[in-house]
Every structure is written in C-alpha cells, then in structure tokens.
Amino acid sequence: MSVKVENLTVAYRMRAGDVCPVDDVSFAVADGEIMGLAGESGCGKSTLGNSLIFMEGRMKLLGGQVVVDGQELPIADFRAMQPFRMTRVSLVPQYAMNALNPTRRISKLTTDLLRSHGVREDSVLEEMKRRLRLIGLGEDVLSKYSFELSGGMRQRVTIILSTLLNPSLLIADEVTSALDVSTQRAVGEMLMEFRDRGFVKSVIAITHDLSILAQIADTIMVMYAGRFAEKADAGTIVKAPLHPYTQMLLASLPEVGLRHDRTILTGIPGRPPSLVNPPPGCRFAPRCPFARAKCAQAPPFEQVAPGHHVACWKVSQGWAS
Amino acid sequence: MSTLRIDQVSKLFRASAGGGLTPALRGVSFDIDRGEVVTLIGESGSGKTTLGKIVLRLTPASSGKVVFEGDDISVFKGKQLREYYRHVQGVFQDPFSSYNPIYRADRVFELIRGVYFRHTGQQAWDAKIDSALQAVALNPGDVLGKFPHQLSGGQQQRLLIARALLLDVKLLIADEIISMLDASTRVDILNLLVSLKRSGLAILFVTHDLSLGHYVSDRTIILRRGAIVEMGDTVKVFSHPQHPYTRDLLAAVPELHKKWHPAEGEAAFPAGAAGGPDDDADVLRTALPARAGDGQDPGPARTDRPPQPVALEPPPLVQYEEGHFVAAAES
Predict the structure, then answer these.
(1) Is residue B193 a contact partner of residue B174, using CB atoms and an 8 Å limit?
(2) In this structure, are residues A152 and B299 in contact, taking their beta carbons and an 8 Å threshold?
(3) ∠B231-B234-B237 over CA atoms, to 5°?
(4) Does B67 touch chain A (CB under 8 A)?
C-alpha cells in the first residue's frame, strides 16, 4: 500500500467553533491506483486533499495519521512537511493553471520551483523537455510566459511541474473542471499516462464530475458532508452503486442521449447539512428517501463486498428499497 | 415572426493597443421562436457569451442586426430600451457574484419594482412575487428576507430567474447558468427551463456542456472561433453530427457508461513506448485531432493569441438534411 490514511480528522477553526469537513476518514491508495474523490461542493474533498500536504493556518489536525511508502508524514507540522512536498507528495490545487507567475517564463518559474526544493535544475530540465514533448506540447513552451498558453496547456504544464520529481502521490484537485471537453480528455489521459509510466505512483483525483472519474479512475470514493459514503472500483460505483446518495447523484446526471421529453431526471431535494452542527447519525438521512429511525446513529463505513465499502444502514442491514 | 432574429452579427475586438482586430463573432445568423430553447455550444473563446451580451445590449455588435419582435434593438434608447428589458432578461453563470452580499437577496426584486412597477400596490406586488417564486418552485418562506449567503447556489439562481419572470419576459438569455451548481441541483434548474419553455418563453441557453444542451434544447448551434459550424434540430445534430469539429466534441464528452474511444482507431498511447527512444512522440496528439500541432496552435481559448488570423468571412452553411446545416471545413 503506497498511501494509507487512518482516522484522519481535520478541522477549520471558526468563531462558531471547530468545523470538521474531514471527519474520521480512513482509506488506502495502492501503487498504480488512480482514486477518484467525488462529492458536492462543501463535502470536504478539497480539504482532505490539501490536508495531506499543506495545512493552512486555519486548519487543525484533530487526529489520524498519513503513511506514504511506509513512512508517516508530519502533516500537522508545516515546516517538517517541506522535504516531502513535491518529492513524496505533490498537489495540483484548484485553479492551479492560474497560479503560474505571468512575469516569469515557464523555464525560470521551473528553476525557481526546483531550487526552492533544493534540486539543481540541470539534472531535471532534460526530463521536463522530454515530458513536454511526450504530451505534445513541445519544449518551446519553456520560453513562453503563462499568458501565451491556453488554459489546457497551462493545466498540463502545472501537472508536469508537480510530477517532475516523481512523487509517490499526486493530489489533483479539479484539474479538469474549467476546461473544454476535448482538453478535459487530454488532461485526463495525461494523468493515466503519467501513472502508467511511473512518473507518479498513485493519484487522488478530486472532482465533482463523476463522468470524468468513470473515464480515468480505478476506484471512486464518494464523500458526503465530511464523511465517506461509498468506495468501490469505478465500474461498480457507476453501474451498481449501493449508497442512496451515490444512486441519486448518478440519477441526476444528464448524459448525451437523454432528452427532457423522454426522460425526466430528478435532482436530490434539500441541501447538504451545515458542518457547524451536523445532524447526529447518518448525514445524508435528512435527504434520504429510505431513512429510518436507525439512521439517527452513524453507520459504519463497512466492507460489503470485496473492495466495496459503504456507510449505510440500509445496505449493511439489508433493508428492502 | 420569430421572437428574436440574429442577422449576420459580427463582433471584432482589438486584442492589444496597435494590434489587429480579433473576430469574436463572424456573421452569425439564426432565430429563436416563442416556446423554443436554442442551445449555443462552444468552447471558451468561441464567442457564445459575446453573442448573449450583444442580445442583452451589454456590448454593441460590430456589424449585423439583432431584431426583437420586428424591431432592430440597436436603436433603442431610454424608454424603448427599458421596455426591451421588460421582455428580454439574462441570467449568468455565477449566482454568488450576482448578489450584493450586504443586502438581502430579495433586493433584486425591489430594484425591478423601482423601475417597472412604481405604481403597483404592495398587495399586488406581493402576489406577483409569490407567483414568480411559485414558477421557479421556491418556497417564499425559505428565501424572502434572507441574505445571499443563507441561500444555496440553486436557490440563488432560481431567485434570479424569478426576478426575470416578474417582468413580462419573452426571451431569457441563460449563460452557463448551471455550470457552478452541484450535480444534484443542476437538473432541477434544467427542468425549470423546460417548464418555462412550455409556457411560451423563448430561451437562449449558452453552455459548453453538450449533455446539458442535448437534454434541454430544441435546436442546437455549435460555434467555433466565432462562426457557426453546425446548426439544426438537436436530435439531428447529436445523432448525425456532420462537421468534424462537432464529432470531436462529441467524442470527447466523458460518459458514465462508455469509455473514451482511442482516437482514429489507434491507441492514444503507443504501447511499449515507455522509456524507449521513441517516446518523444506526440502521443497526446491523437487524442486531440481538432488541435493537431498544439504547440504552435493554442486553439481558440480566451487568453490565446489566435494562431493565424481567422477569415472574417464565416464558412458558408450547407443544408445537410431538413433543418440541419453544416459549415464547410475551414483550414
């Protein structure tokens, strides 16, 4: 197991008290695995991704540990984490393509980045050129400014930068979201290719878009209001989901081929609970059509079939729909 | 008479001081009828938002005409323009920035009242708001008197649609109105558009998401680099796409139950290339046939310099079948 996260709880300090967008979650990502992390806005998926590498000042680790390649990461210690960033764990944060410094050429920006991690650029620059050519960008990108590149090109450059030192884990947060379909596809295929070539061992792909994950992910984790709802391999999540939330989320997705005059899709009524005072028990229960009295207790995140974990009383106790 | 007729509309922007003119729209023509949803699909930079802005008179066209119920909108001034906005309203992508966070969300209604309903009594006004909220399936108690941050994105977006409905709206420009919403609430807004259309509203639905466009619209227009490349009945365009660009777009849409096809019958990544001397090949190029030579041609994204100046003259449209037009291929 290349990445193992156990009982991770991360809070934001707020005036109203601590809010936990990541509440006691445990999971593992195998070598060569792309794990998709899906959920609606505010469910904690980005907080989970960020906490593995970059604890902001307002974030607080309340418990749990993260082990990568058998070594525990000091995620709560901002400075002690520095040697692990980019070498062991890398992050492509949301909107990263807008983070490229517009006053520096890509080559200068790369040099700065590498030096700040104590790496001499000449040992890596050849490899960077090779990877640029590999994804069809050409090395002349290095002499350009970020504003001379299209959004899709910038996004691919940020992914190359973050995987340059072959990290064990890449956290890719919404890397396909602001892109057009054809560029989305190029970025998605690039992630798979980088995994296949061993530029990165495992990937956590965070997105709200389940159909992208159906294309690129090996396993999909569905998160709801700070907790895990369901995890299984991508095919199972898409074809035979068990958690009512996953089922309703999938049912609300319009796919090419659906027309309003044939099929009326339905959304999920209500909205996710506030994390300041989340409902006790199952957090989806207030919106769940199958909720019963038992749902006032939190369901365990249990394995119901090999590799298929679900946190739902309906599933674990076998209630009929 | 169609509700809206767009006739040979072009728009040129000056990209930089002293630089040449960049065409954002090139000779676009189509019309929208009462009770019809027309979807405008295009990548970023294709000109779809510019067109919506021209129809809303937020920016003038460089040439061409926009005709609303028989009248050229470019000459409207003062009272006429106010009357125009009584019938034509827009809702935009980001509901979170459409509201002033300092005021209560329903202030958007009061602003309308100040302009259009100064002589409406309180009781009649309240009844109007009630029926507008009803039409967008909002419960007045849930939204009235609340601040924007107390409402969900879906509620905020519906409130803006309700605001348009307070007026005697005949044409709604919906520019990416659901792309910032969560999947579970998106479809409710789509269904709302369908029910508004059934009650006679004409809707210009601007999106980059093909599946949303297919679900909701009667006719589809595919824009590329400011020109129409394919246009027609939604079912026809999606089931027999003729233009290579439309086909590429459709092939790239991520679907839940179908994996992306390797482009052009070969694996997107040649097997066995890893680590070998040949792995400098432009492997991803096969996945992007529409943008071959990406290194030189950054494609039509918004921040790009155009690769080479595009001809202002749009490619001519040819009828492929009844109600389905395709543009000749451009270099």
Answers:
(1) yes
(2) yes
(3) 55
(4) no
- List CB contacts of B112: < 8 A, sequence separation 6 or more: B163, B166, B167
pLDDT value at residue B279: 40
Query: What's the whole-model pTM score?
Result: 0.83
Give me the residues of A, 239-258, that contact B with CB < 8 A: 239, 248-250, 252-258
B279/A contact by beta carbon, under 8 A: yes
Beta strands in A105-253 (DSSP E): 169-173, 202-207, 219-224, 227-233
How many CB atoms lie under 10 A from the CB of residue B303? 14
Q: Assess B208–A contact: CB distance below 8 Å, yes or no.
A: yes
Give B210's contacts in chain A (Cβ within 8 Å): 181, 256
8 A C-beta contact, residue A250 and residue A210: yes
Q: What is the DSSP string of B272-307?
A: T-TTSTTTTS-GGGGG-GGGSSTTT--TT-TTSPPS
Residue B331: per-residue pLDDT: 56
Does B274 contact A214 at a Cβ distance shorter than 8 Å? no
CB distance from A149 to chain B under 8 Å? yes
Taking the CA of residue B193 and the nearest CA in chain A, the distance in Å comes to 10
What gap in Å lies between CA A18 and CA A276, rounded to an integer?
7
Within 8 A by CB and 6+ apart from B326, the residues are B229, B230, B242, B243, B317, B318, B320
Six-digit token string for A230: 């369901």
Q: How far apart are CA B67 and CA B29, in angstroms?
A: 11
Three-point CA angle B61, B62, B63, nearest 5°: 90
Residue A275 main-chain phi, psi, to 5 deg = -85, -5
| B 302-331 residues with CB < 8 A to A | 302-305
- Rounded Cα distance, B259 and A216, in Å: 9
Q: Tell me how far apart the alpha carbons of residues A178 and B229 are, in angstroms, rounded to a whole number.
A: 23
Regarding an ipTM greater than 0.85, the answer is no
Nearest Cβ partner for B187 among A140, A180, A265: A265
CB-nearest to A190 from B216, B259, B284 is: B284
The answer to whether the CB atoms of B252 and A136 lie below 8 A apart is no
B150 Cβ under 8 Å from any chain A Cβ: no
Please tell me the distance from the alpha carbon of residue A269 to that of residue A251, in angstroms, as a whole number.
13
Tell me what pLDDT residue A14 has.
80
Question: What's the pLDDT at B267?
Answer: 41
3-state class (DSSP) for residue A63? strand
Q: Residue B132 is which amino acid?
A: A
CB B314 within 8 A of CB B327: yes
Contact B184 A256 (CB under 8 A): no
Return the percentage of chain A with pLDDT > 90, whole number. 65
